[in-house]
Design brief:
The structure is a homotetramer of 215-residue chains.
Chain A: H1 18-42, H2 45-52, H3 56-62, H4 66-90, H5 97-111, H6 116-128, H7 132-144, H8 146-150, H9 162-181, H10 190-210
The structure holds a DNA duplex (21 and 21 nucleotides).
DNA sequence: GATGAATGAGTGTTCATTCAT
DNA sequence: GATGAATGAACACTCATTCAT
């Protein structure tokens, strides 16, 4: 696992045929299952290949190394999460700022829900390689546009400073991540959701006030 | 690395002689250096022993296993950080709520400053074992008492709900941690500090308002 | 070497290809040679692998751990011995009780002959794990049926008590084992054989007399 | 643990003072306890020293190496056993041949003061070094003189042949040893004792008959 | 004489990765 | 394309033994 920092290659061969795509899917699914069941410690290439019903050689035909497999899994999961968040935002008919934030928060919490051990392991591994930046980038984007997420008209909120985007996105993710990692029972409770919403709203509110444009 | 969740034993032998104490210190220092230089991947017991100028056997005379060494290092670092935070809080003569929060935030940021790779690695390792809870417990405590940290008189702010303590502490730590992990250049900037303060203050403020007792 | 008492698993992978079978054979042969040459002290997995001309990884592909290798060797050797004893018994055309016992004794003595250091080591190791019971079980069975081995008609001798089976089988094995271990020159002499036969016959005789059914 | 075959040196320093004798005794007692509690696997020099309440350095002042300690323990226990056997023989007032044999058998079974696990471990270790011969020599002597042990007048039984001495002593020891090693519950039962007596008596009987001098 | 901190060779075992079939 | 037997560097950890204090 040498450390390649810049968006390392993941696939060795891009599957062009249906069967190959199935194989890749099977391997990723197996990887998730292994991770879910035994955490990072059980995540060996041999174990993944076996569970996928594929020979170890085949696994290496599609993933350059163990790391690439992990990354591919992480990307797949992040993508799914983002799709969900997007869907949540577009599906809100009550356009109160708060209700939009709530929708986003809920989507994020749920994205981190099922298969939590697998997610935990993936997160760990990603962090361990300093690839966290790449992974949170999309979330970052969402937060950056939070002005438009919130306001009916964009003028109301001045564009956020980079530090503000950073603090808000990482604070939110950090709280959710901690709840997942520590396996907190209230992860999906209403109370927890409320507090996350409060975290975002009060922060935005403070900025708006400072700019003389209270929400 | 078997998983003992509750404050696992760290030391195998308590050093009674001066030489032994030096040895332990040397090992911990070496561990920090190795972590700093090569991250978790380079952190092998043999490497640590070698850098400490000590035989591998000696290392194992003082630490039951690799994990215990890591934990001991984590505890030492956490302890130092907490001491700093405590000192910061008691050394503020301008007792504005905001200035007290600012002191705390600044202490935390600085605690995460020097030797950041080592700290990063320690944090990762701790998280990887689900011992994050133990490690953040003291921070948790600080936040839990944030009412008294902030208010001149404690009645002003109702005691925080567990979820609120959780969200606030993890959000703050999460933002700082991310800045460390991603090696953000603004880590020690005034602007970043301001936003962290805002994060805490606005959240508290929101709670206070809800309780009908604005700060 | 954890202690699993009940017929522990020995093989990790059942060899399906010809090459694999050869590899396993080579490893077992190497193990026997190492044991023969240097006793239990020289019996390290690395040494065995090296002598087998195989990598250490390959060894572990076929044997879960060091112990499993030892056990597999023991079983192989025991099996060979038993086959010999069985063949000896069925090949006696003079059906005198004594001549049948003599055939059995002779087979046992010969079974413990060649590669005695290896056998010695194996025996030691097996005993050291409390797996002696499993290993002597077949011999036990032979002795248990000694009535039928000896008598033309089975009624003549009452079925032996467990303690009697135990004493007779262990006494016989003990005498042979000691001769092997101490490398006694008379191991394969006629005189020694005679005395072993006497040991068995007189004991059985005594039981038969007691039961009022002298042979 | 290099193999020195001929009655290796055991003591490094012969204790001349009372305190030293106590120390040696404490170490041997600790060794026996460790062996009894955890078998050969737990038998480390450090563990013994600790349980004896002595520093590891002190242990090495009295025993050249680990092996010497084991040997000293074995000799001590063998000596004790022999004394007991002797006492048993001289203390029988019913001078039937059988009752004398029974006394001997019982003393042998009860050897090692009921510390059967320790006994097992010592036996294992002794065997593993090929020092079994040295250890059984005294027993051999007893059996060699079994004619006098048994008969009121020595003429009755012709002197035993070397093979006969060997077979009888090893058979008896083998049966007892196996019961110890396999931790058979009937080890100290009357039934087991009876069968051991039968083993010896019937064998002797057979020889006597052959010589035309039935007991 | 006693202590116990220090030593370090040696062991069993894992697992990512290769490549002949 | 797929297979899976083989590889071997690397690691955590043990414990008999030494020797400065």
């Amino acid at each position: 696992m040498a450390s390649k920092r810049q968006a390392p290659e993941t696939k060795r061969r891009i599957p062009r045929q249906a069967r190959a795509a199935e194989t890749v899917a099977a391997i990723l699914e197996a990887a998730a299952q292994i991770l879910e069941a035994g955490g990072l410690a059980a995540f060996t290439t041999n174990a993944v290949a076996e569970r996928a019903g594929v020979s170890i050689g085949t696994l290496y035909q599609y993933f350059v190394d163990k790391n690439a497999l992990l990354l591919a899994l992480a990307r797949q999961e992040m993508g799914a999460a983002l799709v969900e968040v997007g869907r949540a935002l577009s599906g809100v008919d009550d356009p109160t700022p708060e209700s939009r934030v709530r929708a986003m928060v809920r989507a994020m919490v749920h994205a981190f829900r099922g298969r939590s051990r697998a997610r935990k392991a993936v997160v760990q591994a990603i962090l361990a390689q300093g690839l966290g930046i790449e992974m949170v980038a999309p979330i970052n984007g969402f937060i950056a546009n939070i002005g438009s997420v919130i306001g009916q008209d964009a003028q109301r909120l001045p564009p956020l400073e980079p530090e503000q985007i950073f603090v808000l996105s990482r604070a939110l993710l950090g709280a959710i991540r901690a709840a997942v990692m520590e396996e907190q029972p209230f992860l999906q409770s209403r109370g927890f959701e409320n507090e996350l919403v409060r975290l975002v709203m009060s922060y935005i509110d403070s900025i708006a006030h400072e700019a003389g444009r209270p929400l």
